Amino acid sequence: AGHGEVSAVGDFDPDQLSTQLEAAFGRWISKARYERLADKPFAPAATEAVIDTKDKEMAIVLAGEELALKDDHPDAAALTVASQILGGSTASRLWNRLREREGLSYGVWGGLYPGDLDPAGQVTMGAILAPQNLAKGKASMLEEVTKLVDQGITADELDAARKGWVDAQDNMLSDDPSL
What we know:
The protein has 179 residues and is α+β, with helices and mostly antiparallel strands. The protein contains five helices and three strands.
């Protein structure tokens, strides 16, 4: 309370919006000084959990790691493009392997999300599979990560990922909630 920011997008009267905000929050004053809490990676211990939902015939595999990475780090752009190649689109390695070639997954994804204010980012990937495909799907995902690290990427993959990322950013700029 006492400190806030408002973003407004669309067709509105700034004076009317300011009046409404002042009426709603103008007397909301904190006795404590505002200080932003810095985000940081927590590095929890690796774990594997199984949650049996007896009425759902599907399996979801999720993997993630927190990274001490901020979006202005010299490697952030390259890592973001690499994550696009790994799992960021329907042209990605994970999608092509698990969905197209092996037919194991209903959907698969992955991405890298560097921190914007603090060096606290994450890399994630996941897939939705039939339960009988879970072990094979996990193995295929890990194999694709290993291949990416060990063998790198091709020039064609790099060009496609760059274009895909730029197109996605352009689309976000035309979307009010993203703005």
